[in-house]
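It is time I had a proper look at our fold encoding. Can you supply me with one protein entry, sequence and fold together? It will help me judge whether the discrete encoding reads sensibly. Leave the record below and I will have a look:
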Amino acid sequence: MASKSASSAAPPAFEAALAQLESLVTRLEGGDLPLDEALRTFEQGVRLTRECQAALATAQQKVQLLLQRGDHVAIEDIDATATLETAPSE
């Protein structure tokens, strides 16, 4: 992994999670994993998919806030887990 040391900054979390997810999909599509390893790989893929969905939801909220504010541009941190857990259970 010497190629990563050439860049002083790590890739953003979304891009890193997406790249890892793509790698897992390739491994699963190969069809040569033992069942236990395939299940662990699938489980990790589900977790990464949720992380990517949360990051995309957060980005979408930020864009919506920027569009609603018009000329006043201010980026606020948004809790991604709150976005995914907005079930009408109240």
